[in-house]
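Hello, quick one for you while I still have it in my head. My current little project is about how a certain protein chain folds up. You're getting the sequence in one-letter code plus the fold written as tokens. Would you mind checking whether the tokens look sensible for this chain? Here's the protein in full, and shout if anything looks odd to you:
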Amino acid sequence: MGDVVVPEVALSSGERMPLIGMGCAASPRPPLDVLTSIFLEAIEAGYRHFDTAALYGTEEALGRAVAEALDRRLVKSRNQIFITTKLWCTDAHPGLVLPALKNSLQRLGLEYVDLYLIHWPVRLKEGTEGFDFKGKVLPFDIKGTWEAMEECSKLGLAKSIGVSNFGTKKLSDLLLHATIPPAVNQVEMNVAWQQEKLIGYCKEKGIQVSAWSPLGANGAAWGTLAVVESPVLKEIAIARGKTVAQVALRWIYEQGARVIVKSFNKERMKENVQFLDWGLSQEDLDKIKLQIPQRRGYSSDVFVFEDGPYKSLDELWDGDP
């Protein structure tokens, strides 16, 4: 990246967000000092937007990297780095939202985050650990939880607030109650899960979409090779003299969405942002739209139970295709 300047986009909150973010989830998670140096390398490579979450266990390492970057004058001031973190489901209770953000800020060593997201439209019983949620999923209080998010914003602890993994129906429910609309909806989006309906809805409502898993998260346990192994993308990449990843990321950018991309490999970190100075042809776009089979990568059935608030994936995802 080096001299690549990542453009920013204006959010409905009035803040500006770099349109490429570095994802900070890692499984297995490297040790703290290793993670800190990876995030520092990303700052050196030009990344200015970092996307973490209470769940990821990477807030502390990211905070250390930001502090060191400031010490070393890699960035001049805190406001040159955009930090997103997220509220985990065990804290998605109206009374726990503000304390959860304060805990995140303590781990990050920061006075505010630039963007605070509700990680999922799901509330788990307090103290739930691990990923066996049977009997632990409670009805989600969208109104009360969002009011608490708005409080975080009014206190200046989060410059912008938003959501993650919300479908169109949940967004419209939220917009009925919100006095501060969500600035961002971060969702799974890539060429193999194109989210056309949701993207259209968010554009109409002035909500920026951030794409997680833009390359199919093929390194993750639940990931898919549908993006990096796509014959359609390979063909376009060869014709354009680009990598498959660059074509996949460029496609997201051309849909008007923002990219959260994760690579802890220094060369790929640089490569993954080199999609801003060229474009896909209409023929390329048509091939991607019509020839790539569509399938959600992360089914999220861990939240679905016959006796829970979400009895089917359709209910969780609002039936959005």
Remarks:
- The longest helix spans residues 32-44.
- The first strand starts at residue 8 and ends at 10.
- The two ends are 35 Å apart (CA to CA).
- The mean pLDDT is 93.
